[in-house]
Amino acid sequence: GANNRAGNRLFLALITHFRPIYVNPTDKEKKSTGIPRAIVEAVRNANPPGRFLKKHPTRDVWHEIGDRKAWEKTSQTLRDF
């Protein structure tokens, strides 16, 4: 499944590591941008690099969602994990 892919395993490991800091920040700016951006950057810079993908609603193709959406997805995952 999707959680067995290297990029997803790395993403979930980073979420697990940073979540306690994210949910109890000492600095609001760190919570709102720093941690999600650092996670996205780590996934994208991994070897092999990870991507943040979304499946097209009607075709069997995937596309990269870009940094802003990746940060939003990461923030949501940090809140919900």
- Radius of gyration, rounded? 13 Å
Gross morphology: globular
Q: Strand content of the residues, in percent?
A: 5-15%
Average pLDDT score: 89
**Tally of helical runs:** 3
Largest sheet: 2 strands, antiparallel
Q: Would you count the extended β strands for me?
A: 2
Oligomer: single chain
N/C terminus separation: 18 Å
- Contiguous low-pLDDT stretches (5 residues minimum) are none
Structural class: mainly alpha
Give the proportion of residues in helices.
Answer: 55-70%
User: Strand order within the widest sheet?
Assistant: 1-2
**Helix/strand order, N-terminal first:** HHEEH
Can you tell me about this structure?
- This protein is mainly alpha-helical and 81 residues long.
- It has a two-stranded antiparallel sheet with strand order 1-2.
- The chain contains 3 helices and 2 strands.
- It has helices at residues 6-23, 28-44, 66-80; strands spanning 53-55, 62-64.
- The model has no long low-confidence stretch (mean pLDDT 89).
Layout of SSEs?
Layout: H1 6-23, H2 28-44, E1 53-55, E2 62-64, H3 66-80
Provide a brief overview of the structure.
The protein is mainly alpha-helical and 81 residues long.
Keywords:
81 residues; mainly alpha; two-stranded antiparallel sheet; 3 helices; 7% strand
